Amino acid sequence: MRTLERVGRHLSTVVFQNITALMSLGLIRILFSPMGWFPNHHLYQTVNPALYYLVPTLFAYTGGKLIGGQRGGVTAAFVTIATAVGELKGFSLILPALIIGPLIGFCIKKVDLLLEGRIPVGFELLFYNAAAGIVGCLFSFLFLQYFDTLFIRMMNVLISGIQYLVESNLLPLLAIIIEPGKVLFFNNAINHGVLEPLGILHAKESGSSIFFLMETNPGPGLGLLLAYYFIRRRQNKKIGNVKSSTIIHALGGIHEVYFPYALMNPFVIIALVLGGLTGNLIFVLLHAGLVAAPSPGSIILMFIMTPMSMQLPVLTGFAASAIVTFSSALLILSRKRRYENRNENDKDNDVIIVQNSKIGGIHSIIFACDAGMGSSAMAAAMLRKRTVDWKKEFTIENASIEEIPLDTELVVVNKHMLARAKLVVPDAEFWPVSSFVDEDLYDQLVIRLSGKEEEP
Q: Catalytic residues, which ones?
């Protein structure tokens, strides 16, 4: 299970770090395709070269760099281009690139370890680069001569599987896996590691893909937050955090803000699944799809990535998923009022139990999340805003958990990811939190950074 989780996280990181290229490709499709807003054949000609060569090369480079450093990435990119001129010419190399990248990176890493301590002083640059070149040539030869046919068979099987899933109407059932997985913070692995690569292959054949909608649809999360907002308003409870979470989720596209509300009362996950099933079913029945993944999963970005002919189907699926989730969650929360009240009070008065608390000032603070670009970026921006007028002697940054700098002194991380963060920087001061939207968190951090108290 841990190996599968690591593979999914690696794939999601590879795709997520290249999301800009995928977004650019999607915008060109939506604007300049024959069925786009401003059809332009000349500009649309950039799509196929980007899909066949640029995106796979970026994926291979990123996958190789994550494991084997800069030379691992460059070597993986070279092998991918070499593979593209063989029997695989005419195929999108998305799948081969996701395999080639980490494979070449791993080999470069092992070769570097083998050479370490055995190279004469002054010859390091020559030996390391020569070794990387040899690895690149060797794997290019192997892939061109022996593995082209294997990759072709793999992609044909994958494309056939995608077509079967789409035509068999089984796709809505994936909500049973996707929605619980999201609230357990596997959202990036599910979307960027699995659904998005499938969507790229599917969109290549059909121009758009339903796979881009299945995890990024903000409807279920919006329905859940609206149900909490309605319940709290009816019970005259504090609604500030729920209100801000609703706006951030729906318009900002940061889905992580609703996960704590689902975990607060696990029964509402049933409502999320029902909403996801409803939305997916409508997407399938109305043949809805996007030209690229909306990342982050904002309503605004979702409709930007929707072809003109699919605006109404996408809107219908989104609205239906939100309404079904809202109705189901409202029923569950009303029936579980006593249980919900107790947990709501816990939420409102969430106590941050600082771990590895240090005496003295803090010079570096990191907000960490799974991908390092969503909720953590929002949280870092919120704290910077509060300290904008300070004469800062500290830095405020955001990062993915695996990329937390080793010299970080204070780490703010979701409590469900605390164990992973401790493996990276075990000596840092940790602030495990339930939600990055909680205003009390920033009040306590301001006190900690100002030095008014040694401990919050």
A: 369
